[in-house]
Input
Amino acid sequence: MDISETLVGNSDQLDNTDLIGGPRDFTITGVSKGNAEQPINIALAEFPRPWRPGLTMRRLLGAIWGTDASVYVGRRVRLYRDPDVKFGQEKPGGTRLSHASHIDKAVTVTLPVSRGKVGRFTVQPLPDAPAAAPAPTPGDIAACEDQDLLRRWWIALPDRPDLRDLIQARVTEVRADTTRAATIAAEATAGARDTLPVEGGAS
Output
């Protein structure tokens, strides 16, 4: 059993603790403006919450890809958890970039990491993504009861609105079935309590 999915936190962004299980590859699907503290949100196809890179990683992205974020869509990154990243006197860790698509060779950049200190960051070319799995058939979708798998299919099929409609309908059915089963189980449990013999009652 792979427990990677159970390590995901409850925040509204990709945190370094979400990468405790090891580095992960992500495909960028969009870049939007954030707030003063976290200026950009990078949406990822393989993760439900955005990556909000800190200043050092934003500078690194600018060094390898340029500062026009519109070209980032469709590109891929490999992110990992660096446990040595400090915040003040603490070491909460941080999310770092190790590989990226759309570069021909390793790129090393020297960047400030704190007041008076600099660090050297090397980004390696990210190998080509594995061939995409065949699209599910309507029969596959109708038989699927795994909401996570249905979600992954939906994300992977932006150019198949016909299958996306089927997936959305199937998700609705699965959720309804899950709710119905929970209701039946609750009613059955309540009914069992109502009919249990009372200790010391008449025989």
